[in-house]
């Protein structure tokens, strides 16, 4: 959950058939705006013309329809200025429509979180289990939790979800990681380090970290990841290393440049509360961990440099 310091500014683009559902679109606009969510598009204007199957708003009459649509789509880029951007599809009875279907494709392949009024019936789009929300419920969730709903994947749809994720391949991914250290004030021994065991790393041990969000500082990303994954608070200390992915490691999508920036992260407590990303954890001095733990390649690389 976001803190007061990191609370994102939420903004959205609303999609749907202006010809069939403009009244419902306007109501969604009202609900989101009342909740403090900025609606980038559509602007709240009257429909003044219909041309080529498109409903045109005031000021759009006579313009090239391709230009109208591209300007609308450019609002998706504006959603990236922060971590709270999303697309919302108004589709009563499951009807999205032709132009909104096109917008959905662009939104999904550009990693824009997408939410829907109802499950689409006229479009074979993949939706994860947590995609369908009324405007009222979505606005209430966002403002209460300070974050967007996370994807939920049905057990029998994991392959479909994986194929969907593979379509959304960015040019590069930056991840911030931390060697979490605890110095016991009552002991003269070496610092203890936290290692977590996860299915993501083939049930091997690793360090805590994750992807850096758009417009997020590396140090803020690491603090957020440590808090989310372990419940621990602390401070970012010395930089250990920066490197790209280890070739043929078997853990990453092909064709994506993965950049890892790892730090020492000091904490004053060992009271760990794991979220669902890890299944187990252990505190251990660095040299003992290198000797006794089955550590995934990236974490071992960083740990060797740390020692």
Mean pLDDT, all residues: 87
CATH class of the largest domain: Alpha Beta
Assembly state (oligomeric): single chain
Radius of gyration: 23 Å
Low-confidence stretches: 1-6
Per DSSP, what share of the residues sits in E-state strands of 2 or more residues? Answer: 25-35%
Count of β-strands: 13
- The 3D shape can be described as elongated
- Main beta sheet strand tally, sense and closure: 7 strands, mixed
Question: What structural class do you assign from the helix and strand content?
Answer: alpha/beta
How many distinct domains?
2
> H/E element string?
EHEEEHHEHEHHEEEEHEEEHH
Distance between the termini: 33 Å
Q: CATH topology of the largest domain, which one? A: Rossmann fold
Helical content band: 25-40%
CATH architecture of the largest domain: 3-Layer(aba) Sandwich
Number of helical segments with 4 or more residues: 9
Describe the structure.
- This protein is of the alpha/beta class and 307 residues long.
- It has two domains: 10-165, Rossmann fold (3-Layer(aba) Sandwich), CATH 3.40.50; 173-306, Nucleoside Triphosphate Pyrophosphohydrolase (Alpha-Beta Complex), CATH 3.90.79.
- It has helices spanning 18-34, 65-73, 75-78, 98-109, 135-145, 158-167, 218-230, 286-292, 297-306; strands at 10-16, 38-41, 47-51, 54-57, 84-90, 114-116, 172-182, 192-198, 204-206, 208-211, 234-244, 257-267, 280-284.
- The strands form three sheets. Strands 7, 8, 9, 10, 11, 12 and 13 form a seven-stranded mixed sheet that branches. A four-stranded parallel sheet has the order 2-1-5-6. A two-stranded antiparallel ribbon has the order 3-4.
- A hairpin with a 2-residue loop joins β3 (47-51) and β4.
